[in-house]
Amino acid sequence: TYSRALEIHKQHLSPMVTAYFQKPLLLYQGHMEWLFDSEGNRYLDFFSGIVTVSVGHCHPKVNMVAQKQLNRLWHTSSVFFHPPMHEYAEKLSALLPEPLKVIFLVNSGSEANDLAMLMARAHSNNTDIISFRGAYHGCSPYILGLTNVGTFKMELPSGMGCQSTMCPDVFHGPWGGSHCRDSPVQTIRKCSCAPDCCQAKEQYIEQFQDTLNTSVAKSIAGFFAEPIQGVNGVVQYPKGFLKEAFKLVRERGGVCIADEVQTGFGRLGSHFWGFQTHDVLPDIVTMAKGIGNGFPMAAVVTTPEIAKSLAKRLLHFNTFGGNPVACAIGSVVLEVIKEENLQENSQEVGTYMLLKLAKLRDEFDIVGDVRGKGLMIGIEMVQDKMSRQPLPREEINQIHEDCKDMGLLVGRGGIFSQTFRLVPPMCVTKPEVDFAVEVFRSALIQHIE
Ligand code: PMP
Which positions carry the signal peptide feature in this UniProt record (predicted)? Predict the structure, then answer.
């Protein structure tokens, strides 16, 4: 069956989406933090699908609620009301500070950010949108303008530039740099960054101001930021930087958007939302992935004022947004996060994992950096700590494959795909972290031998 599956995949599924491993995985079953393949092998899932399975694969309580709702009502379209939608809206808004109380339900992170961009322009009456270099906000043609991870972009025929031009008036500000110093592990490590990686907050602010000033007619509509850049390889900003950036954007009449697609729902441990870790209050928050534990759903939350600005100017509709099954799942995911203390677990087990992994950085010259917060951790691989050049892709591929063959699935990120991402379901335990770190260490030893 395995070779037949590969054949079908090759013939009928787009080559645009590449398989994650040289020997791709054919997955049959999932249970909490574990996945099982066609040959009965089990894998500890330290990537949660892609940062999506927040409370565990096929969580029994989530399954039970989903099945109950499937038997009752599947679909209505958002123009009809139904109890799961109202129950969910109340529960979600209770988790956000005033005045973030108005919810739009959609189906994916890209859709959520598309809508947020529209809101920012409708509300500010301005055009320009700012995002960071290295940002990932989605893959729809419109939002691709904000995404700044090169491999997701396409050169159009000569003279037309990059695909980002489909979304005009987007400017990319400075990024957190892949060797950002402001990681919580800084206190327990000797810094080995090259000097140009260690830019202070002031320098970033200066660059950010330059970006705002180059924006055509300085007509800033909105500014998008991930509280920690995920796809770019778990990149953090210097302390206080985002707060200052929000202020500069607001001075120019723009609205600030926190993309919580990866960082929300307790994953960062210390707070429920990533923006809270920066002590900022966004005007719009977008969320997806972990919101439905793998079921397609997403949301945009904003202020009544911004919601009104958009409603005044257009009718917006989404066939599947606010689907009854999605809403029922969204509600039970929030209940499970609370009942099982998963945010606290992210904090405790995440800190434990960060400290354990930091030791690998001291042990191996090819581990250039270990950083992150809660259960969102990046391990950046370099040729050596002096040069800080990324480890060649083939070598990283091999370590990745070896981890998989030893039963551990981890993610990848960064411009050169040089950062391993460890982002397990939030129910992960310390013994599982011990197993993961041991597997990762064995793969590194195998590599240098
Ligand atoms: N924002 C962020 C921060 C993301 O990581 C992603 C997906 N990787 C998206 C938006 C887009 O989400 P989706 O794939 O659901 O469209």
Answer: none
